[in-house]
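# step 3/5: fold
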Amino acid sequence: MKTEVNDAWRSASLLFAALLTAVLVNNVAAASPAVCNMRLSVELTPDVPNPLDSGFLSSLLSNQASYRLTLRSWDPGSVMVIELTGPGPEYRCQNVVEAMRKDGRVLSILVDQESS
């Protein structure tokens, strides 16, 4: 009888632990902040000496230290495709794009509509 009681308590404890874990995981997922992930087509002025320079992309972000630009493709004399990542929500991502549009080296920025 004592073994059956111990087994019942052990089973109940495991079930409780599993339920508690599920609740905590769901709460953490719900509390996770929105993430910015946008694909941009950026046309630069012809006087940009080397857009592939490691410091150039980060300079487009000016003081937006929480964001990152990653080069996806570039055709010399044409448009570069870059990915903008960082913290959300979406309006903050849009603010970063708007700040980049004001950069004198940027002729235009188009946001890929399939970005999330």
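# step 4/5: annotate
Residues 17 and 23 are 10 Å apart (CA to CA).
# step 5/5: archive (pending)
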